[in-house]
Amino acid sequence: MLNRAPIAAFLGDSITQFWQDYRPIFWSGNGFLNYGVSGETSTQMLNRIALPLERKPRFLHILAGTNDVAGNGGDVSDEYVLGNIAALATASRSAGASVILGSIPPTAYPQLSERIAHLNAALRLLAREDIYVDYHRALASDDGLCDRVLIPDGVHPGTQGYEVMELTLREAAPSLFMESSK
After folding, report:
1. Which residue among 32, 65, 74, 140 is buried most deeply as judged by most CB within 10 Å?
2. Residue 79 sits in a domain of what CATH number?
3. Average pLDDT for 155-176
4. Residue 30 is part of which domain span?
5. Looking at the domain assignment, is residue 32 inside a domain?
6. How confident is the model at residue 3 (pLDDT cuts 50, 70, 90)?
7. CA 140, 159, 167: angle at the middle one, nearest 5?
């Protein structure tokens, strides 16, 4: 059997990592590889970007920023986070991978919602050359916080949340799924 390049590599934190646990059918046999690591910040993802890119995926899905906003790596500015995510996208494009940039999903913490909204507005602009997936809009309740049915613990989607993410991704990036059905 030929060792084909994956269709897509998904780079992220625990939200990406747990996706495979909650929705294994999404990952089964479609050429998607999960490079999610729990607790990681955008800086840590930038430090390991070579790992998924060495597999030469056609797409690199980036879902970063939640742990930066939460302060997991210390206090960092929005410009710092955006710079890291821009560098991830640039590295992906330089390696020949099309970029799929996911918004930062909503949380249950009101003190984080304004910063997440600001970063997501900037990410949407950053992704003008790429595919932007608005997971925040899909997973938020009317108050801008997470819908607790979709994100039961206030940060990580549950099974229903990941189903919504998959539908949102299919709408934003139909070319990803055309590639995986070949």
Report:
1. 65
2. 3.40.50.1110
3. 97
4. 8-180
5. yes
6. low
7. 65
